[in-house]
Design goal:
Elements (H helix, E strand, L loop, with lengths): L4 E2 L2 E3 L2 E3 L3 E7 L4 E8 L2 H20 L2 H17 L1 H12 L3 H19 L6 E5 L3 E9 L2 E5 L7 H12 L3 E5 L6 H9 L9 E3 L6 H7 L5 E5 L2 H11 L5 E5 L4 E5 L5 H13 L9 E7 L3 H12 L20 H16 L3 E4 L14 E4 L6 H4 L6 E7 L2 H9 L3 E2 L1 E5 L3 H8 L6 E4 L14 E2 L2 E2 L4 H6 L2 E9 L1 H4 L1
Parallel strand pairs: 1-5, 8-9, 8-11, 9-10, 11-12, 13-14, 13-19, 14-17, 16-17, 19-20
Antiparallel strand pairs: 2-3, 4-5, 6-7, 7-23, 12-22, 15-16, 18-21
Helix pairs in contact: 2-4, 2-5, 3-4, 4-5, 7-8, 9-10
The structure holds nicotinamide-adenine-dinucleotide.
Amino acid sequence: MSVKALYAMTIGGRSVNAAASLDVVNPANEEVIASIPDASQDDLHAAVSAARAAFPAWRAKPYAERQEMVRAIGGVLSAHAEDFARILTAEQGKPLDDARLEIGGAAYWCDAIAGLEMPVTVNEDSDERRSETRHVPIGVVAGIVPWNYPVLLGIWKIAPALLAGNTMIVKPSPFTPLTMLKLGELLTDVLPVGVLNVISGGDSLGPWITQHPGIDKVSFTGSTATGKRVMESAATNLKRITLELGGNDPAIVMPDVDVDAVAEDLFWAAFRNTGQICIATKRLYVHEDIYDRLKIALAAYAKRVEIGDGTHQGVKLGPVQNRLQFDRVCSLIADSKANGHTFLLGGDVPNVPGYFIPVTIVDNPPEDSRVVQEEAFGPVLPMLKFKDVEDVVRRANDTIYGLAASIWSSDEAAAADIASQIEAGTIWVNEVQHLTPLATFGGHKQSGLGAENGLEGLLEYTNPQTITLKKRSAAA
Ligand code: NAD
């Protein structure tokens, strides 16, 4: 994109602009790359009306037809994959290869979710009656999406919500709205009018959505602080909610690992997508016997990783996505400096265009320091020493979060035993961040409510309905 590109919303199958607009900035150089509509409340009302009008026909469609249409969404992503990837790198900052992976993953997700069947439970089938519980769509669903994986996390909502028979309004983050606005436009050729509406806007739009009486469910991915606001405001009409929120994932590294082999995996566990992953390793607990060796291996590996503009060949880590997040991460680094923590790597933020922060590892800071307790959501990692399992499990669980965790050990049984003591929704042994469309994903504690993916994720977009039929033969 050379000059400022113009993007439109999709409401009721039409391309719609708003009276006001917002600029979108490329985080690698801070240049304005596009202008997007800043939706008014009337625009939101129009989207809700369009979704509501489309609901009866969409829910009445045979399930198999909706399966085909969800697959077709994946087809659109694949057909335009390179365009999507380039826009994604420009708006989000991630390296082009990672953007391609995100688009490919989103297409794959559509295909896999479309393959899920909706279960029916037979509660009773006797001479007297037949009782079964099925799952019916909720109505109009709003999907609110963050800026770290704007396409994939949007598809995590769109695919199951539409498959289940709901119609939708999707709101991307104002920091990364372009890919979703483009998808909305392209899908007008695939989906009936009003089934999927994509609207963009500033800070007022999210609260308008969560308060709107015409919306029956909100599926939200974002920070825990915002998730609490969503929950509060959804109470106005008792909206169903799914909340995928923040995390402070521990990795526990036992002394029997092959240190050189795990160093690379642990590096990417913490720093992939410049640390901006809800399930990034955010606290690295390393057994004291291998702590110094792993430090050396991590530092050696980190020196080989190029940071820069994601469009440049060889770049493996891009900038932090936006100024606010950049400032937040810088404040954690400043706090560690002010408290005299030792830096194994990084810590000095260059004064260059773009939101670049070097890979920063803080060497064994106190457990109660901000860099350990807070979710950095950026390229800053505390490396922490432990001696015994009981102690590290207690420290790993001593957080308001419970999203995910990983255990690293060559003794699989011992690792599985540690995993069973961790309070989190997903725990990996000897790998991390492996997600599949068929496995339930959701946070414990303040990392969320409900789940995405798998059958449980699909059922989040339904209401259970039990139908009981008293048989005429029994009444006679
Ligand atoms: P955020 O909470 O600031 O924003 C998320 C979305 O909510 C954006 O679209 C934003 O515009 C919208 N929003 C903001 N205020 C709102 C309000 N009052 N009501 C309704 N919507 C509102 O989060 P972010 O900074 O975009 O994303 C980073 C956070 O998301 C991190 O905490 C990360 O861990 C979390 N996250 C969680 C998961 C998960 O699956 N659990 C996945 C990715 C990111």
